[in-house]
Amino acid sequence: QVQLVQSGPEVKKPGASVKISCRASGYTFNDYYIHWVRQAPGQGLEWLGVINPSGGRTEFAHKFQGRLTMTSETSTTTVYMELTSLTSDDRAMYYCARASTGHLFWGPGSLVTVSS
Amino acid sequence: DIVMTQSPLSLPVTPGEPASISCRSSQSLLNINGYNYVDWYVQKPGQPPQLLIYLGSDRASGVPDRFSGSGSGTEFTLRISRVEAEDVGVYYCMQALQTPYTFGQGTKLEIK
Question: How many CB atoms lie within 10 A of CB A62?
């Protein structure tokens, strides 16, 4: 069955970077785009960007361009999301999600805390 | 960006009664292939969102048939025919027609 396993919680200082992994299994890795969505505490859902694991093409939300990177590693069927220059506004649960037929299958989330 | 507007934002429901949530998009979500690219998800505390309905009206695998989705273009509705206690959570609509994918604000369903 399709499974997305994400890396564990992170605590970062303001100005630092965080890199989260999302390991996929149960399907052909290169056949499905992976999206990243975040959710601040008590808030709604915010789309960050998407990566095509086949070739690595990415697209990001405008507000994150310049400080967001996504990469994929076919050998380990893992996608990575790195966000730089963290502020307290980046404190959130970060979800990877596999796209299929216009819908998303979500990973469990990775909690990022930004605190001095 | 496509703006998704949900209503109501809070929905108290008596068990056994029906419930409906509306979602309006700022532009049509009808693709040239004839499908509306709108999904409905429910998020329960401490969990990621779970898919209920995709392409406007297709029920996801394992979703009870008391959940249904309808609508086309810019107006969409999620209906629960008879609410059960386990349906408590926050319901989101999402458009997947174009990036950036965008979400409604969420509707919190609670049991009276």
Answer: 8
Residues from chain A contacting residue B102 (CB–CB below 8 Å): 47
Contact B52, B42 (CB under 8 A): yes
Per-residue pLDDT tens for B9-53?
999 999 999 999 999 999 999 999 999 999 999 999 999 999 999
Q: Locate A46 and state its tokens.
A: 């915010």
Is the preceding peptide bond at B8 cis, omega within 30 degrees of 0?
Answer: yes
Contact across the interface for B60 and A103, Cβ inside 8 Å: yes
Instruction: Please report where in the chains the tokens 């998407």 appear, as a residue.
Output: A50
Burial class (CB within 10 angstroms; exposed 0-12, middle 13-18, buried 19+) of A59:
middle
Burial zone of B38 (CB within 10 Å; 0-12 exposed, 13-18 middle, 19+ buried): buried
Q: What is the mean pLDDT of residues B86-105?
A: 97
* pLDDT, tens digit only, all 116 positions of chain A: 999 999 999 999 999 999 999 999 999 999 999 999 999 999 999 999 999 999 999 999 999 989 999 999 999 999 999 999 999 999 999 999 999 988 999 999 999 999 99
Q: Looking at A15-107, which runs of residues are DSSP E strands? A: 18-25, 34-39, 46-51, 58-60, 68-73, 78-83, 92-100, 103-106
Q: Which two tokens mark A103?
A: 């819908």
Q: Name residues 32-91 of chain A within 8 A of B (Cβ).
A: 35, 37, 44-47, 50, 59, 61-62
Measured on CA atoms in the order B55, B57, B62, B67, is the torsion positive or negative?
positive
